[in-house]
Specification:
Elements lengths: L1 E5 L8 H14 L4 E5 L5 H7 L9 E3 L11 E5 L6 H10 L2 E6 L3 H15 L2 H4 L4 E7 L6 H10 L6 E5 L3 H8 L13 H6 L1 H8 L2
Parallel strand pairs: 1-4, 1-5, 2-3, 2-4, 5-6, 6-7
The structure holds adenosine-5'-diphosphate and magnesium ion (MG).
């Protein structure tokens, strides 16, 4: 099973938005995918509960142990403030970690500290777990994107995507949908921004 942990200790960085869209992407690729929501707010679980029966299925995982082996992919949405034991536990499960970063200076600073912590993990240093960063609500060649690249230059971590701020994500979520469940013409510009991230997900 491939486990993707979406994490950033900062609230509002885009973890849930990214998690449900990654799960939606995998489901639309015909993968068996489950979503595990570690956040007490249960936003991803609520999204899943409103998912239409006609959309490619995504299973929910109530606990980390439950039937995990039956799924090819597991996407873990995590809460703000993830650290210490809970972070260590989530890290144990993950083969890939995606860190969404929102475009403010404060988000960048907090994210950089988190990324430094991750980069020092044994599992990451031995390449058993790969980390990638997503610029959330960001566009290329903006001040925020430049600052993110500048911050990351010291850590040798890839930027997997810049996902622009758009109501497409917000509106899709209201219907339990991801970008990948929408008629493609409604999300053409967004889908374009996902290409590299998709390839990275599928790499071993
Ligand atoms: N690319 C985006 N475009 C528009 N709104 C976004 C985008 N990414 C996130 N948001 C919005 O930002 C807010 C925080 O995102 P969320 O995914 O809930 O973050 P987290 O789970 O890290 O707290 C939500 O209101 C969400 O709808
Ligand atoms: Mg969330």
């Amino acid at each position: 099973m491939k486990t993707i942990l979406v994490a950033n200790p900062k609230g509002g960085s885009g973890k849930t938005t990214l998690s449900v869209n990654i799960a939606g992407y995998l489901a639309n690729r015909g993968r068996h995918v489950a979503l595990l929501d570690l956040d007490r707010q249960q936003s991803a679980a609520l999204w899943l509960a409103t998912r239409p029966a006609t959309a490619p299925p995504i299973r929910t995982l109530e606990s980390k142990k439950e039937e995990a082996q039956r799924n090819d992919w597991l996407v873990i949405d995590s809460p703000a403030g993830l650290h210490g034991k809970n972070l260590a536990h989530a890290l144990k499960l993950a083969s890939k970690i995606i860190v969404p970063v929102a475009p403010s200076l404060f988000d960048l600073q907090a994210s950089l500290d988190f990324l430094k912590t991750l980069a020092e993990e044994k599992k990451v240093r031995s390449s058993k777990c790969h980390i990638g960063v997503v610029g959330m609500r960001m566009e290329m060649r903006t001040k925020a994107a430049w600052a993110l690249e500048h911050f990351l230059a010291t850590l040798d971590l890839p930027i997997l995507a810049y996902l622009r701020e758009t109501q497409v994500y917000v509106n899709a979520a209201f219907e339990g949908k991801s970008l990948f469940d929408l008629p493609p013409h409604l999300a053409a510009r967004e889908l374009e921004q996902w290409k590299f991230l998709q390839d990275w997900l599928e790499q071993d």
